[in-house]
Amino acid sequence: MNKIKNDIFLRACRKQPVERTPIWIMRQAGRYLPEYRAIRQKADFLTMCKTPELAAEVTIQPVDIIGVDAAIIFSDILVIPEAMGMKLEMHEGKGPIFHKPIRNENDAKSLKKIDPAKDLKYVLDAVSLTKKELNGRVPLIGFSGSPWTLLTYMVEGKGSKNFSSVKSLIYNNPSLAHSVLSRLADAVTDFLSAKIEAGADAVQIFDTWAGILSQNDFEEFSLQYIEMIVSNIKRKKEPVLYFPKGVHFKLRKLSRCGADVISLDWTMNIGKVREKIGKTVALQGNLDPAVLYAGKEKIKEEANKILGLYGEGSGHIFNLGHGILPDVDPENARYLVKVVKEESGKYHKQSEKA
Ligand code: CP3
């Protein structure tokens, strides 16, 4: 295994000393980069995901172009339902579509148990190829959707505003919801373990729709499955990051779910969250992605605010509070990375800089 030259991201996940705060950007491999769009013009999104050479190339682009401290494998959270047998279409401007959503027992029966080594081999091949091509420059992050967030897409069949179908399912037929969620939890556990085995240095679980649940429902339909996954993933020292977007409650419970890092959206005060749970977990985040629409001075000011709120010491991974928006100027993303690298040194003691 290659030794990683810039391992500042991994050290921050483990709250070990760092010389400055590391930064990467959710959805950093994507349409805001002209270099991404050039490849995307020649291949559709799913073909890119399924061609390890193309996936590796766009995964590495933001490391070269933006200067981030970690790469995240180019793929999508919806490859799991697709591997379970749901036909997936990605529509320009409309997002993902499953034409046959899961609404009853009969639909759920058609979902097959996946073996990542066979059914998602193309993702694992992309991970090992990317790892090889990165040649130890920065760590590689593998990822998955949370069972709950995957269930929302599988039941709604597409993006949604009020999530009527999946909410209707949890209130009318909770046992069906739980049976699909626990199958998804097994699939996510096996998939993330296989990604680590293939070379991922850390894994992140995206729970984009955690925040649409009431506090008790969040525990019942999402968090308990995260706990199962984190305790069952086969890993050595690879950190697990959990991003429960919109969850501003039950922070102590969240901090005990087993994840090493909790990723915060931009509505939270990272300083206050650190006071509550910063001894137990590292924190990631949490700049409003829309700040990248502003000019450089404003970007610097807002980045400094977050660095200041977190304060001194390790355990902070700078990131946006959600994915980078497709119409952001890449120059602004590059500037954010530069500013965080330059401004964060003062929060880390000389003794940390060994
Ligand atoms: O972070 C990275 O750069 C790695 C790649 C990545 C993608 N999707 C590529 C992608 C990651 C980590 C994801 C995660 C993902 N996918 C999530 C969770 C994170 C989040 O943003 O909430 C979700 C909910 C999805 C499902 C998904 N995939 C949606 C809703 C869409 C359409 C909306 C959109 O942004 O266009 C996608 C498509 C998608 N996934 C694109 C990319 C680069 C755009 C497709 C294209 O190039 O046409």
Write the layout of secondary structure elements.
Elements: H1 8-13, H2 34-40, H3 45-50, H4 52-65, E1 71-72, H5 79-83, E2 88-91, E3 95-98, H6 105-109, H7 116-119, H8 121-134, E4 140-145, H9 147-156, H10 164-172, H11 174-198, E5 202-207, H12 215-232, E6 240-244, H13 251-255, E7 261-263, H14 270-277, E8 282-287, H15 296-310, E9 316-320, H16 330-343
Parallel strand pairs: 1-4, 4-5, 5-6, 6-7, 7-8, 8-9
Antiparallel strand pairs: 2-3
Helix pairs in contact: 4-8, 9-10, 9-11, 10-11, 11-12, 14-15, 15-16
The protein binds coproporphyrinogen III.
List descriptors.
globular, 354 residues, 12% strand, seven-stranded parallel sheet, alpha/beta, two-stranded antiparallel sheet
What's the number of helices? 16
Strands of the widest sheet, in order across it, are 1-4-5-6-7-8-9
Structural class: alpha/beta
Helix content: 40-55%
Question: Could you name the ranges where pLDDT drops below 50 across 5 or more consecutive residues?
Answer: none
Average pLDDT score: 96
Which series of helices and strands comes N to C? HHHHEHEEHHHEHHHEHEHEHEHEH
Residue share in β-strands: 5-15%
Q: What is the distance, rounded to the nearest whole angstrom, between the alpha carbons of the first and last residues?
A: 24 Å
Largest sheet data? 7 strands, parallel
Radius of gyration: 19 Å
| Ligand roster | coproporphyrinogen III
Shape: globular
